[in-house]
Amino acid sequence: MEGWNKGIKLTHVLLIAGAYILCARFGQLFAIEPGNVTPVWIPSGILLALALRFGPQIWPGVFLGAFLGNIWAYFSTESVQHVLTASGSAALNGLGDVLSIVLMAQVIKTFAGTHLILRNYQSLLYFLAFGVILGPLISALFGSGGLWAFGHINTDVLSNVFLTWWLGDAVGSIIFAPFMLSWLTPERQFAKSANIILVSATAYSLLLTSLVFDLVNFSANIEHMLFIPSPFLFAILFRYGQRLVFTVQVAVLSIAVIATWRSLGPFASNSTLASLLELQSFAAAFSLAIFTIAIMNLEKTSNEAFLEKRTKELEELYRKDQLTGVWNRYRLKEYIRQALQRLKRSSTPSALLILDIDNFKHVNDVHGHNTGDRVLKQLAHTIHAQIREVDCFGRWGGEEFLLILDHGDKAALEIMSEKLLQLIRNEDFGLNETLTISIGGTLGKLDDNELSIVERADEALYKAKHSGKDCACFTF
Q1: Is 399 a catalytic residue?
Q2: What is the pLDDT of residues 171-194, one digit of tens each?
């Protein structure tokens, strides 16, 4: 899908056009006369989301979908004139949708600086101004104007068709654009476990809305009981991400549209236009409330992510050695304590090695402390690249480093020691002389603490230093 940003293929055009036509045909199930206008125009929201997400390259699909959808609704083969009038109004409708959807999406992204239309209250204002008000207005001007210009509607109903077209597109954008975008954009807190929450919250919302709009009926006592858990629904909406919020929005408003279309619920009226306007007003008001929740939700999530990032950075500061970038003594002690706890709990062995650079004072005295620091960093990086993720390596202090091998036994201790000795001998530290290390190693015991195991390894290191250096000794 990311490839759409580099250009659009014929298959993409056809997919977008097909999506437009399918959504249009579904929306027209609820169409009213005159003008065959629907209370909620689904393609306006779906296509606006696609334009925001994938850019202006989708315009051929938008035009083709609007053109073919209009042809489907008004085309007749009675005469050549009918063919021309249907084609003319369809072309105007397609042009209007390209301007109202693709152009407005670019305007929103330019002003908001992002395709996430509900990132904050400022981006919401841009979305409402250009995606919900101005864009649908342009679509209504071209769409109703085309119907009037080519004789599909009379002048006396033009204003009503224009108004319902405008509001239908506006409601479609306000409902389906955020919903579609929420599913096109990865969401930090939407783990697999959240699917259960989403399905449950959506199902409960559908049930409550069906009760309010008289689509289902129970006894009064049962209905009262069904509303008791509703505060938990609001808590869930604030807790989880925008994907859940907008899915609930679509569920609620879909029930409202279906019920009103069937002359049920609080917006049922003898006047079709009055019912339509009340429904659209409700959809707008409900959506604004949902948007507020969604923005607060996103701000909360962003704050949590920022705090989590800062916490990790602080942990890095007090757990990492500032010179070499590997773990410091504090973290090493912490890991030793955890390894010994595992040993006592599950008899999982751990091995500990202390590594000391041989003749490091000579390096500092001859080459300078800057070179000494460089050698420390290079050695730390070289060894760290050779250990497993489950092992822990860090700077114990000065030129001493410590390595804890998870699930390490005597054989692992000896193999790793020889590997590290050879690794450092072969490493070029730019000193015109070979750098070596000495290693002292031991295994954890049930009665060990972080001090005793380190002291035992230190004794082994002392033996290695007095055995000619560049070697490993062990104390068990």
Answers
A1: yes
A2: 899 989 999 988 888 766 556 667
